[in-house]
């Protein structure tokens, strides 16, 4: 069973701080990694994808991938209350178009 | 731009009833998926399809059926509804060749909230 693990949280950070969300996965041949944001009562929305080891930055978001340690993380700089949501980590096994999702981490950014 | 459209948005079923959740996408996507999401849980794959006429089981297919007669439509059938099927259901799709900056983008419908009583 291919698994994707996330701390369910909630992770609470003050406005302006850096929020760090982590995800580990069990399938060593995984090649594609994604972060989705899901607001309460809404559908998931893809915000970051990463395919190679290292960091990938997009605005206030940075995705970090370490395939040797089988973890992927998402950093949100200058966190805003509007970032409060559940963040789902998803992993595509090698050659597959079927992502496996983690349970999600609830992030609360308080003013 | 409709994207992925699901109906109905809300439905209450009695135990033993059957119903179909409709899903249609207008992006000419090959891949379509049905997920369910229980409170505090991630998305569990029910069924998926890689193209018209081709479907396959996901992680939690029991109690459900699907069909894919056209590229656009991927309905999910619930037979003999049970309380364990109370959940939020998401239909999603992605294209075979994704040129968007994020690549491999999966587009989700708005969800269907189903309660079985």
The poorly predicted ranges of chain B are none
Q: How many individual helices of chain B? A: 0
Shape, principal axes of CA atoms of chain B: globular
What's the assembly state of these chains? heterodimer
Find the structural class of chain B using helix and strand composition: mainly beta
Gyration radius of chain A, in Å: 13 Å
Supply the number of helical segments of chain A: 0
Explain this structure.
The complex is a heterodimer of chains A (111) and B (117). Chain A is mostly beta strands and 111 residues long. In chain A, 0% of the residues lie in helices and 54% in strands. Chain A has no helices and eleven strands. Chain A has strands spanning 4-6, 11-14, 19-25, 32-38, 45-50, 54-58, 61-66, 71-76, 85-92, 100-101, 105-110. In chain A, strands 2, 4, 5, 9, 10 and 11 form a six-stranded mixed beta sheet that branches. Chain A has a five-stranded antiparallel beta sheet with strand order 1-3-8-7-6, with no helix packed on it. The relative contact order of chain A is 0.36. By secondary structure, chain B is mostly beta strands. Chain B is built from no helices and eleven strands. In chain B, strands 2, 4, 5, 6, 9, 10 and 11 form a seven-stranded mixed beta sheet that branches. In chain B, β4 (31-37) and β5 (43-51) form a beta hairpin. Chain B starts with a strand and ends with a strand. The A-B interface holds A 4, 6, 8, 32, 34, 42-46, 48-49, 51, 88, 92, 97-104 and B 31, 33, 35, 40-45, 48, 50, 58, 90, 94, 102-106, 108-111.
């Amino acid at each position: 069973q291919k698994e994707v693990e996330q701390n369910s949280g909630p992770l609470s950070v003050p406005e302006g701080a850096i929020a760090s969300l982590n995800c580990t996965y069990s399938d060593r041949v995984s090649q594609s990694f994604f972060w989705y944001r899901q607001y309460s009562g809404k559908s998931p929305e893809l915000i970051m994808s990463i395919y190679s080891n290292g960091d990938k930055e997009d605005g206030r978001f940075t995705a970090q991938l370490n395939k040797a340690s089988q973890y992927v993380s998402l950093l949100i700089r200058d966190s805003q209350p509007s970032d409060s949501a559940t963040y789902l980590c998803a992993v595509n096994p090698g050659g597959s178009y079927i992502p496996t999702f983690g349970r999600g981490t609830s992030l609360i950014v308080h003013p | 731009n409709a994207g992925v459209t699901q109906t109905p948005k809300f439905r209450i079923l009695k135990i033993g009833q059957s119903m179909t959740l409709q899903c249609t996408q207008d992006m000419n996507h090959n891949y379509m998926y049905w997920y369910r999401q229980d409170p505090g849980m991630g998305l569990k794959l029910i069924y998926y399809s890689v193209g018209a006429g081709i479907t396959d089981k996901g992680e939690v297919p029991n109690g459900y059926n699907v069909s894919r007669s056209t590229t656009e439509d991927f309905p999910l059938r619930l037979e003999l509804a049970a309380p364990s099927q109370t959940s939020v259901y998401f239909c999603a799709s992605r294209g075979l060749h994704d040129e968007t900056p994020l690549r491999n983008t999966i587009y989700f419908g708005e969800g269907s909230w189903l309660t079985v009583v």
